[in-house]
Amino acid sequence: MFEQILQLIRQHDRIIIHRHSSPDGDAIGSQVGLKHLLRHNFPEKEIYAVGDDARHYSFMDDSTMDTVPDEAYADALAIVLDTSAKKLISDQRYATAHATARIDHHIFCETICDAEVTDTSFESCCGMIAAFAMECGWDLTPLAAKSLYTGMVTDSGRFRYDSTTAQTHRMAAFLMSQPFDTGEIYRNLYADDFSRIQLRAKFVMKIRLTPKKVAYIFTDKEELAQLNADIFSISRGMVSTMSDIRGIDIWANFTETDNGILCELRSSKYNINPIAVKYGGGGHAKASGATLPHRQAMENMLRDLDALMGE
After folding, report:
1. Model-level pTM?
2. Tens-digit pLDDT profile for residues 72-126
3. Please, are residues 176 and 159 in contact by the beta-carbon 8 Å criterion?
4. If I label 199, which of 78, 135, 178, 249 is the partner at 20 to 30 A Cα–Cα?
């Protein structure tokens, strides 16, 4: 499956790894995991990872991005991970590289790179990188395995989401052949400060329902400014407050910013991806996102989600 990308790796002495902006655990995990796989199995090559700050996932080893000058791209291979659209890529210099490749598990939106492997049967991009390593017979390192496992945990919801398959567990078992502390991973991912628990409680009280029982939360710019929390923690971090309500099959978190209304869409039953795409976003069948231009677009999206519930 990865033959063309492997050939490009062999042909280039410098490889620069990109992923989407505002990274989650899968984006950082796949990036750091691939970086250390390539450094270990191709020690003669220069391997870098670039992008915006890891923020909530800065606890992950080697999550501080490398500084790479513009001229380094001229004879380099740029590999884009966990990204379905060009506009989402952190550090647009990938396009100036000598050659480009993409590995992604999202629903296909557009061609981005010279060589591409996209496969929605994987729960995470980290799972795809693990499969890449297994297919190539690469040696694992503890850091690479730990990074990839962390990304698999986050994108599979601790192996709870229905994207989790036998393939997921095979890749996890492959990674766990290396020594790393899973307890440390879970403590960093899911232990919350008291202030964050209080914040979640506040968001639970903000939950509203549409006529067809789509759950949603809306945070306007004024309230966002008063919360003393970063946008990622509010937008993606609070959507899960609605995930386990009995009788709720679709939920959405809307966060108003200076650059539009960030929307995180989730479902336990329906394919909400076409609605996200309709509003300029994308993602997975049951976990997607978009940025809306104004509140009327949010109201329109909620009506579309109600219509989906009625089908």
Report:
1. 0.82
2. 999 999 999 999 999 999 999 999 999 999 999 998 889 999 999 999 999 999 9
3. no
4. 249
